[in-house]
Amino acid sequence: MYHHLLVPVDGTFLSAANTSHAVQLAKRLGARITFFHAMPNFSATDEGALWRDLDPAYYTEQSIGDSRAILSKAAADAGAHGVPCALHATVTDRPAQAIIDAADERQCDLIVMATRGERGLRGWLHGSQTERVLRATKHPLLITRVESNEPLTDAEHAMGLIHDEHRSLAVVIKGMQDLTQQAAESGGVLDISSMRRMQQYLRDFPEKLHHPKEEQFIHTSLLQRHPDARRVIDELERQHQTEYAAIGRLHQAIEDCAAGVPDALEVLSREVNAYAEATWVHMGLEESSLLPLAQKHLQATDWAEIAQAFASNGDPRFGDLSGAAFRRLFTSITHLLPTKADQRP
User: Which of 109, 160, 194, 329 has the fewest CB atoms lying closer than 10 Å?
Assistant: First the structure.
């Protein structure tokens, strides 16, 4: 029986799918997970040396890289399923050996990885790294998927993208809760700048990218294939509108805190927690009712269109910020979150 899994993550879609499989496995085993991310040494590059002098803030952000964003989303995935997890990142030019060392240091009894099934170095934690770990580690290694043998379907790709966006939203909402709680425990000192950036993300990303694509591509197609889905779709779209109003109240509560309005922090805490609870209910309804109906009734052509829609981040129909800009905003937000060595649900 395995009790502690090491799961390397690198932000690619295959890695995200591997994370989901590992979380489900850990839940069945009653095990905990250490999510691990290896990143290159930006400071050792010529570009890093240049930016260190030209723009120290940008240099610091690039040195941290995407680790916080990648690991935070993995933790959100585990938290959604009640699986305890820890997060660990390191800078290295030997990712396979770093994975093995992390498994040793954290006393993990199973490493869970996926592979593209390709030869040669392609990225950091792709097929060649899995093969190197397999050859060198003394730990059991579970390979959850060889993509060259079992390519992802359009439905799997689309579902993975939707779940990934849900986890991004969960990370930001949990960050707002943590910052609000931290302010209450520190005598009312709230990080206004960070709260504003998080509120901006929660205001813009769902309204301009996530929800319109759900409604235009999933809801419309499902109603055509399965009209009985009308009730759940109407409820979800009503919740979308309620969410937009709640974001307005969050904005006002943050600005009241900035202005020093009496009891504003208490009001903000209530609004943040109410928004979080409503979002968990909304995501739960989507993931337990809407998406299973979509999997059952939508056809391959529908899923191809949905996958393309969620993957096309630069669509100008959804506002001034592209999906890439929202990803950068999300990454910058994760750098502002309170640091916790052990992330538990």
Answer: 109
